[in-house]
Amino acid sequence: MILPITTYGNSSLRKKTEEIDSNYEGLKALIDNMFETMYGADGIGLAAPQVDKSIQLFIIDLSPLADEKPELANFKQVFINPIIRSEEGEEKFYNEGCLSVPGVHEDVKRKTEIVIEYYDENFQLIEEKYDGVKARVIQHEYDHLDGILFTDKVGGIRKRLIKGKLAAISKGKTNTTYKIRTPQGIKK
Asked: How far is CA 173 from CA 14, 25, 33, 76, in A?
């Protein structure tokens, strides 16, 4: 089932999320619905707060980027209760967007390597090191679990230039090809 994606201006995107355990009711269905929602919106990552759930869960499928980066062809993962243990390497800018901030894309600086510990969908504990695009997308989705949006990392004049777009999104004045939950309600 496709869920509405919560957009900028909703307070649920700013909440710190809570850990869950393997007994979380409806977890498998939620994960399936999140993948369906993400695919329906042409996304590559989606965090639970973006579907109005304040839990520590995000999903990623980087296979749409495989034409440019073949190593991403089979990178589809579920991250439950993740903890980034370290961020290393050079800080690099990369243009990011977000399904919760439709129509806004900005350069964001992030570290190029991370070590993350998380549970997969079977509640197997995993610790892995990622770099490049994998690390960047994981960091972006991880930020959602702390109530942080990529626009919070934009500074200076760029922040002022997108202020009007963000205000419009928070008023529900945005067009998307997917169902969204604005502060004013659900919109198709």
From this structure: 20, 34, 26, 32
Q: Which CATH class is domain 5-181?
A: alpha beta
pLDDT tens for 99-155 read 999 999 999 999 999 999 999 999 999 999 999 999 999 999 999 999 999 999 998
Write down the domain spans for the chain: 5-181
CA distance linking residue 106 with residue 2, whole number of Å = 27
User: CA distances (Å), 28 to each of 22, 23, 24, 60, 154, in order?
Assistant: 10, 10, 9, 15, 35
State the catalytic residues.
Answer: 141
Q: Which two tokens stand for residue 170?
A: 């928070």
pTM exceeds 0.90, yes or no: yes
Taking the CA atoms of the chain, what radius of gyration do you get in angstroms?
A: 16
